[in-house]
TrEMBL record:
The gene is otsB. It catalyses: alpha,alpha-trehalose 6-phosphate + H2O = alpha,alpha-trehalose + phosphate. This is Trehalose 6-phosphate phosphatase. It comes from Sulfitobacter aestuarii. Its cofactor is Mg(2+). Its EC number is 3.1.3.12. It comes from the Bacteria.
Amino acid sequence: MSDGQVPPPIVASEAAFFLDLDGTLAPIVDDPAAARLDPTAASLLERLIAQTSGALAIVSGRSLTQLDALLAPLRLPLAGSHGLELRRADGGLFEAPELDYDMEEVFAQMRDFAHARDLLLERKPGAIALHYRTAPAAADASMALVDEIASRDDNLRALHGKMVSEVTLAGIDKGSALRSFMTLPAYRDQRPVMVGDDVTDEDGFAAAQSLGGFGLKIGPGPSCAQYRVATMEDFLTWLAAALDPAGSLSEGS
Ligand SMILES: O=P(O)(O)OC[C@H]1O[C@H](O[C@H]2O[C@H](CO)[C@@H](O)[C@H](O)[C@H]2O)[C@H](O)[C@@H](O)[C@@H]1O
C-alpha cells in the first residue's frame, strides 16, 4: 500500500514513463469530450520524448482515436482502451490478443439503462463505459449493473473508475500494456515509472514495481503505488524537476 511518500528526484533520461491521461495530464471535467491536455503537461511531454529517447507511453482508458485527438499535434506511443490498443512510436500496432467476445448484447443492455437515467454511455474498442459524474445518484445502480454483467462471463471484467463504471474485456489491463512496451529496445534498459490517479492505474503501478521501477499515485485513495503526490500540479512540478536535474531552468538562466 502507498504510504504517501513523495517520490525522490529522478533523472528523466534513465526512466521509461507510463502516464495516465485523465486526472494526470488533463484535469477532470464533467463532460469527457470537453477534457483538454494541461498546457504545462503538453510542453513537458515534448521534452520527455526528447530526453527519454522516446521511452514513454500514454496508458489510458480512452481509445487510440480519442487519445490522438487530445494529444495533437503530438503523436505518442499509446496504450488505449485500458491496454487493448497498443501503438508504438513508429506507428505500428502491437498484435492484439485473442479476446473474442461479442459486446453487442452488453451494449444494448447498458444503452437501455443509460437512456432511462439520462447517463452518458461511451463505447470504445473492447469496453463500454457508463458515466455518472453529472448524475451521482445513479452511481450505485450503475456499479451494480456493471458488476452483474461482468459476473456473467469470464471474458468480461468490471472496472470502476472516477464516476465511471466500465465493462471491459478481461485479460488485458494497464499492467499488461506496460509489460509489452518494456520488451521494446527503447524501453528495455530504462526504469519503468507509472503515474496515474485512478483505480484503473493499479495494474500499471504493480507492473512497474515488479520490473524494478515504481508507481506514483496522484491524489487520495488506497493504492499499491510506492509513492504519492496530492495533485496533478504536484506531479507536473516533480516531472519538471526530473527533466531539469541540474535546476538550470528554474534558476532563470
Ligand atoms: O485511464 P484514463 O486516461 O484516466 O481514462 C479513464 C477514463 O477517462 C475518461 O473519464 C474520466 O475523465 C472524464 C473527463 O475528465 C470525466 O468526466 C469522467 O468522470 C472520468 O471517469 C474517459 O471518458 C473514459 O473513457 C476513460 O476510461
